[in-house]
Amino acid sequence: MHLVDYAIIVAYLAVLLYLGLRNPLTGKNSTGELILGGRLLALPAFVASLVSTWYGGILGVGEYSYRHGLSNWLVFGLPYYLAAALFAVLLARRARESLVLTIPDRLAQAYDNRTAIAGAAIIYLMTVPSAYILMTGVLCEYLFGWPFWLGVVVGTFFSIVYVYTGGFVSMVRTDMLQFVLMFLGFIVMLGAAVARYGGWSFLRSAVPADHFTWHGGNAPFYVAIWYVIALATLIEPAFYQRCYAATSVRVARVGIYISIAFWAVFDFLTTVTGMYARAILPELADPVSSYPALAFHLLPPGLLGIFALGLLATVMSTVDSYAHIAATTFGNDIVGRAARLKAGGILFYSRLGLVISSVLAILVAIFFRSVVDIWHAFGSVGTPALLVPVVTSFVGRRRLRPAWALLSIVACGGLSALWLAASYVRADGGYWFGIQPILPGLVLSLLLFALFSRPVAPGNLPTPPD
Question: Which of 40, 151, 367, 385 could form a disulfide with 413 if both were Cys (CB 3.0 to 4.6 A apart)?
Answer without folding.
Answer: 385
